[in-house]
């Protein structure tokens, strides 16, 4: 972590970290980034054919896979971008507003 105190009253606005940005690399799993989303993907296991297109396109690695099958969505880290729903050819994932 930087020595710079981002919460100091002496800190200029130009030196502050923009909200919602993780400044350290490789640490996104430490934060529940899913709190930022306004829509969430809802997965229907009956329609899912386990083609893994949703898994391949998810930028947050939020598609949960166990035993070579999709098991659900990690809502703690899903940001609701909708890429998984857009890629699903079987309508197994629908994006709904929260």
TrEMBL record:
Gene Ontology MF: a single term: oxidoreductase activity, acting on the aldehyde or oxo group of donors, iron-sulfur protein as acceptor
Highest taxon, organism lineage: Bacteria
Gene3D superfamilies: 3.30.70.20
Pfam families reported in the protein's UniProt record: Fer4 (PF00037)
Keyword line: 4Fe-4S, Iron, Iron-sulfur, Metal-binding, Pyruvate, Repeat
Entry cofactors: [4Fe-4S] cluster
InterPro entries: 4Fe4S_Fe-S-bd, PorD_KorD
All residue ranges annotated as the 4Fe-4S ferredoxin-type domain in the record: 39-67, 68-98
SUPFAM superfamilies in UniProt: 4Fe-4S ferredoxins
NCBIfam families attached to this UniProt entry: PorD_KorD
Protein name: Pyruvate synthase subunit PorD
């Amino acid at each position: 972590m930087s020595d710079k105190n981002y919460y100091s009253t002496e800190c200029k606005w130009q030196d502050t970290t923009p909200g919602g940005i993780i400044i350290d690399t490789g640490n996104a799993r430490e934060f529940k980034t899913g709190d930022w989303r306004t829509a969430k993907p809802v997965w229907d296991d009956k329609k899912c054919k386990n083609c893994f297109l949703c898994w391949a396109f998810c930028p947050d690695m939020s598609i949960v896979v166990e035993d070579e099958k999709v098991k659900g969505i990690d809502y703690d880290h899903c940001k609701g971008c909708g890429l998984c729903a857009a890629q699903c050819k079987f309508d197994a994932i629908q994006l709904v507003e929260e």
